[in-house]
Each structure stands twice: as structure tokens, then as C-alpha cells.
Recover the amino acids of this structure.
């Protein structure tokens, strides 16, 4: 169950990345707007950890089943920022920052 | 004086992560490039001592970008990728990279790799070495076999190509419109020139040189 946003100082974003430096880049992009929680994707019980943390959004750098299932189940925004280039610039810090802010704000409005 | 490092990778978030790790470590001045033209411009303008180069740098890849850099007076280049195979690592090293790291390494390991390069050594992730050795042996074997295969006439190569596909002498004779006796003579010559005991070994050599589909990569040379 998500911890309500109002009970946190800032929204919590789970960053589940194969590449630690990608996670660091994502954390830097979210600086000032969210508290990033870096998690390795190969954790044995990532699903349980996500459930305990109750993040307001999740960022992954590849396919991560636990993150996908949690996001779908809890209706939490999931952002995929591929660690290898795939032709577009979806993974720019500014764009990620804007998308995360936008999704968090729209979630608050919906709530 | 900080070491000038250029991070050449199309993924801006990853570049930001590398920058953050290097700045935290201290002693590095970091610049960035997202594609080959930016890389070349930054090398010219900033004269970096080290380049961390993505194997898939647009538009043509890291190996093509390496070919544009001056191997004598240019920066020392360390290639990197997420999960490269041995052939890719070997290609980058052959093109002039002095090392190869992977994107699942932690920031402190990347920093150690850069220091290793500055010490004049080759930073290569240990887990890549087995695949690199296998790739190197494959290239060596192909070259060695290629030297033997080059002794074959075009007709003998044609016969050997059919043998490699599992074709029997009678069928080869039919396909090439020659007698079975002539096919046998070609086979004897092939075994002699390749210095191998059987047609199976000869077929293996053919596949090693020309690929599993029998595509004649050496056709121009022959």
C-alpha cells in the first residue's frame, strides 16, 4: 500500500537500474523534486521491498517484472529509461524530470 | 591539474551518472558527447586525456568512431557497453581501445578503471576476458584455416562448399555436371592441400572460414 504523498516530505521514487551509474543519473535528475530510492533489479524479493516502500513512481532502465507488476497493481507511474540507446532521447534528465513531476502532480489531482 | 575525461554515450542520464561519480571521486574534469560528431568536436576542442566511449555511439558505433581518432596523439579510449560479447570487445580493442568496461559496474569501479588507464595499463573487466580469449582464438583459427583454404582452386572450393553442406559425391557430380571420379579426385586434392585426414575436417575448416551458411567471404581474395 502506498504511503500517502501528504505524509512524506517529498515523493518517493524507486529507481531500479541494472547500471548503477544510470541510477545515479536518474537520482541527479530528480534532485529537489523527489527522494530517489536506488534498488538493484536482481534483489531476491524486490516485489516485497517495493510494497513496503510504497513508492509514488518507479524508474527502471530495462525490463523488470517485479517493478512492472507492482506499478500495474498499485497504479503507480513506471518510467523506462533504456541504458542502451534506442534511437530517441527519451532518457534525457530534463525530460525524465518533467515526466515524473507531471505524473506526480496529476496523481495528486486525481486523488 | 584534473584529468580531462570525455564521456561519449548517447544516453544523457548515463552521462550524468558518470559525471556525478567522477566529480564525487575528484581529480577529473568531465565533458560529454552524445554522438560521433560531438565526440570529434570535443576531442578537438578539449583535448581530453581519456574517453569513455559507448560501443553503440551513434551514428555508426564506437568502433567506427575509434577509427576517426588519432591512435598516436589522440586520447586514450576505454570502450564500454552493457553486455558485450567477445567479438565486440575484440573489435574495439583491435580498433584502438586500450580497455573495456561494462555499464553494470559501480561508479567506484569505473573510477578505478580510469586510474588504471592513466597508469598506462589496460582496464578490462575480468568477466569479459574469457569471451575475449575465445573470440581471439576464433579469429586466429579462421586466419590459419584461411591461409590453407586460399591454396584451393575455385572448383575445389565449390566442391568443398557442397561437402560442407553435407552433399554426397554423386550429388556433387550431378550439380557440377562432372563425373563422380572427378569429384573424388577433387576431394583428394582438397584433403592434401588442407593437410587434413577426412572430408568432415575439411568441411569444418570451410565453415570456420566462410561461416555456417558457406558465404564465401574470401571470394574476392581467391
Amino acid at each position: 500500500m502506498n504511503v500517502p504523498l501528504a505524509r512524506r516530505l517529498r515523493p518517493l521514487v524507486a529507481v531500479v537500474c541494472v547500471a548503477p551509474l544510470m541510477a545515479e543519473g536518474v537520482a541527479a535528475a530528480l534532485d529537489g523534486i523527489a527522494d530517489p530510492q536506488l534498488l538493484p533489479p536482481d534483489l531476491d524479493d524486490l516485489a516485497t521491498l517495493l510494497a513496503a516502500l510504497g513508492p509514488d513512481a518507479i524508474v527502471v532502465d530495462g525490463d523488470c517484472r517485479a517493478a512492472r507488476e507492482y506499478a500495474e497493481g498499485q497504479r503507480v507511474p513506471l518510467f523506462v529509461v533504456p541504458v542502451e540507446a534506442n534511437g530517441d532521447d527519451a532518457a534525457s534528465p530534463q525530460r525524465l524530470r518533467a515526466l515524473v513531476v507531471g505524473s506526480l502532480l496529476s496523481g495528486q489531482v486525481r486523488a | 591539474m584534473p584529468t580531462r575525461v570525455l564521456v561519449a554515450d548517447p544516453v544523457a542520464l548515463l552521462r550524468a551518472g558518470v559525471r556525478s561519480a567522477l566529480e564525487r571521486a575528484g581529480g577529473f574534469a568531465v565533458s560529454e558527447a552524445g554522438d560521433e560528431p560531438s565526440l570529434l568536436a570535443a576531442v578537438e576542442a578539449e583535448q581530453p586525456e581519456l574517453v569513455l566511449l559507448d560501443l553503440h555511439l551513434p551514428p555508426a558505433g564506437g568502433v567506427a568512431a575509434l577509427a576517426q581518432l588519432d591512435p598516436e596523439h589522440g586520447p586514450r579510449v576505454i570502450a564500454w557497453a552493457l553486455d558485450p560479447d567477445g567479438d565486440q570487445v575484440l573489435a574495439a580493442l583491435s580498433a584502438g581501445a586500450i580497455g573495456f568496461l561494462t555499464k553494470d559496474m559501480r561508479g567506484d569501479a569505473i573510477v578505478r578503471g580510469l586510474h588504471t588507464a592513466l597508469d598506462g595499463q589496460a582496464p578490462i573487466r575480468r568477466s569479459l576476458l574469457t569471451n575475449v580469449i575465445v573470440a581471439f582464438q576464433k579469429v586466429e583459427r579462421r586466419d590459419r584455416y584461411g591461409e590453407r583454404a586460399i591454396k584451393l582452386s575455385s572448383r575445389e572450393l565449390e566442391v568443398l562448399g557442397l561437402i560442407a553442406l553435407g552433399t554426397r559425391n554423386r550429388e556433387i557430380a550431378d550439380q557440377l555436371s562432372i563425373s563422380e571420379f572427378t569429384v573424388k579426385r577433387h576431394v583428394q586434392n582438397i584433403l592434401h592441400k588442407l593437410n587434413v585426414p577426412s572430408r568432415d575436417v575439411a568441411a569444418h575448416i570451410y565453415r570456420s572460414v566462410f561461416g555456417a551458411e558457406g558465404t564465401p567471404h574470401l571470394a574476392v581474395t581467391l
Remarks:
- Chain A touches chain B through 21 residues (CB under 8 Å).
- Residues 16 and 41 of chain A are 5 Å apart (CA to CA).
- The longest strand of chain A covers residues 12-16.
